Amino acid sequence: MWQLINTTPKTYNTMNQRLQTEEIKKRIAKLPRFKSKCYVCGCKISKRGMTFHHLWYVFNDVVYKNYPKNTSGQLQYYKDLEPLIRESPKRFLYVCNTHHQAIERISRYGDELFKRLLKARKLTRANK
Question: Whole-model pTM?
Fold first, then answer.
Protein backbone atom coordinates (compact mmCIF):
# COMPACT_ATOMS: atom_id res chain seq x y z
CA MET A 1 0.00 0.00 0.00
CA TRP A 2 1.28 3.46 -0.87
CA GLN A 3 2.05 5.73 2.02
CA LEU A 4 2.09 9.49 1.77
CA ILE A 5 5.28 11.11 2.94
CA ASN A 6 4.65 13.69 5.60
CA THR A 7 6.46 16.79 4.36
CA THR A 8 6.10 20.06 6.13
CA PRO A 9 6.01 23.29 4.14
CA LYS A 10 9.52 24.06 5.47
CA THR A 11 10.86 20.71 4.23
CA TYR A 12 9.22 21.24 0.85
CA ASN A 13 10.66 24.76 0.58
CA THR A 14 14.16 23.47 1.42
CA MET A 15 13.88 20.74 -1.22
CA ASN A 16 12.58 23.30 -3.74
CA GLN A 17 15.51 25.65 -3.02
CA ARG A 18 18.00 22.82 -3.51
CA LEU A 19 16.42 21.94 -6.85
CA GLN A 20 16.50 25.59 -7.93
CA THR A 21 20.19 25.80 -6.98
CA GLU A 22 20.99 22.68 -8.99
CA GLU A 23 19.06 24.03 -12.00
CA ILE A 24 21.08 27.27 -11.92
CA LYS A 25 24.35 25.32 -11.78
CA LYS A 26 23.31 23.02 -14.64
CA ARG A 27 22.21 25.98 -16.74
CA ILE A 28 25.54 27.78 -16.28
CA ALA A 29 27.54 24.56 -16.78
CA LYS A 30 26.11 24.27 -20.31
CA LEU A 31 28.13 27.30 -21.40
CA PRO A 32 30.77 26.28 -23.98
CA ARG A 33 33.62 27.09 -21.58
CA PHE A 34 32.48 24.49 -19.03
CA LYS A 35 31.06 21.71 -21.25
CA SER A 36 28.98 20.47 -18.28
CA LYS A 37 31.93 18.55 -16.84
CA CYS A 38 34.55 18.87 -14.13
CA TYR A 39 37.65 20.66 -15.39
CA VAL A 40 39.89 18.28 -13.40
CA CYS A 41 38.42 14.78 -13.79
CA GLY A 42 35.84 15.24 -16.55
CA CYS A 43 32.88 13.86 -14.57
CA LYS A 44 29.45 15.25 -15.42
CA ILE A 45 27.87 14.38 -12.08
CA SER A 46 29.30 13.79 -8.63
CA LYS A 47 27.78 12.42 -5.45
CA ARG A 48 29.22 15.42 -3.61
CA GLY A 49 27.90 17.86 -6.22
CA MET A 50 29.41 20.35 -8.62
CA THR A 51 30.40 23.98 -8.19
CA PHE A 52 32.16 26.93 -9.77
CA HIS A 53 35.66 27.89 -8.67
CA HIS A 54 36.79 31.53 -8.83
CA LEU A 55 40.17 31.71 -10.56
CA TRP A 56 40.52 35.26 -9.27
CA TYR A 57 38.37 37.74 -7.42
CA VAL A 58 37.48 41.32 -8.27
CA PHE A 59 36.43 44.16 -5.99
CA ASN A 60 33.00 43.53 -4.39
CA ASP A 61 32.86 40.04 -5.88
CA VAL A 62 30.22 37.47 -4.97
CA VAL A 63 31.92 35.31 -2.32
CA TYR A 64 30.28 32.22 -0.81
CA LYS A 65 31.43 32.94 2.76
CA ASN A 66 29.32 36.13 2.73
CA TYR A 67 26.07 34.15 2.47
CA PRO A 68 24.14 32.26 5.15
CA LYS A 69 25.15 28.61 5.46
CA ASN A 70 21.73 27.21 4.59
CA THR A 71 19.79 26.30 1.46
CA SER A 72 18.31 29.77 0.99
CA GLY A 73 21.78 31.33 1.32
CA GLN A 74 23.20 28.86 -1.19
CA LEU A 75 20.38 29.58 -3.63
CA GLN A 76 20.92 33.34 -3.33
CA TYR A 77 24.67 32.89 -3.83
CA TYR A 78 24.16 31.08 -7.15
CA LYS A 79 21.48 33.57 -8.25
CA ASP A 80 23.98 36.38 -7.65
CA LEU A 81 26.88 34.46 -9.19
CA GLU A 82 25.16 33.45 -12.44
CA PRO A 83 25.30 36.87 -14.15
CA LEU A 84 28.96 37.27 -13.18
CA ILE A 85 29.87 33.90 -14.67
CA ARG A 86 27.93 34.67 -17.85
CA GLU A 87 29.65 38.06 -18.12
CA SER A 88 33.17 36.72 -17.50
CA PRO A 89 33.33 32.91 -17.74
CA LYS A 90 37.13 32.93 -17.99
CA ARG A 91 37.27 33.84 -14.28
CA PHE A 92 35.75 30.48 -13.32
CA LEU A 93 36.18 26.73 -13.55
CA TYR A 94 33.36 24.20 -13.25
CA VAL A 95 34.54 21.43 -10.94
CA CYS A 96 33.20 18.62 -8.78
CA ASN A 97 33.21 19.48 -5.07
CA THR A 98 35.93 16.89 -4.40
CA HIS A 99 38.34 18.65 -6.75
CA HIS A 100 37.18 22.09 -5.66
CA GLN A 101 38.23 21.21 -2.13
CA ALA A 102 41.60 19.95 -3.45
CA ILE A 103 42.14 23.19 -5.42
CA GLU A 104 41.34 25.25 -2.33
CA ARG A 105 43.81 23.25 -0.20
CA ILE A 106 46.58 23.42 -2.80
CA SER A 107 46.04 27.18 -3.18
CA ARG A 108 47.14 27.70 0.43
CA TYR A 109 50.72 26.76 -0.44
CA GLY A 110 53.19 29.27 -1.81
CA ASP A 111 54.80 28.57 -5.18
CA GLU A 112 58.09 27.31 -3.77
CA LEU A 113 56.48 24.94 -1.26
CA PHE A 114 54.09 23.70 -3.92
CA LYS A 115 56.99 22.92 -6.28
CA ARG A 116 58.68 20.94 -3.50
CA LEU A 117 55.46 19.03 -2.79
CA LEU A 118 55.14 18.14 -6.48
CA LYS A 119 58.75 16.97 -6.53
CA ALA A 120 58.16 14.87 -3.39
CA ARG A 121 55.06 13.36 -5.04
CA LYS A 122 57.04 12.47 -8.17
CA LEU A 123 59.79 10.87 -6.05
CA THR A 124 57.24 8.79 -4.14
CA ARG A 125 56.72 5.25 -5.42
CA ALA A 126 53.11 4.25 -5.69
CA ASN A 127 52.13 0.86 -4.26
CA LYS A 128 50.51 -0.92 -7.18
Answer: 0.83
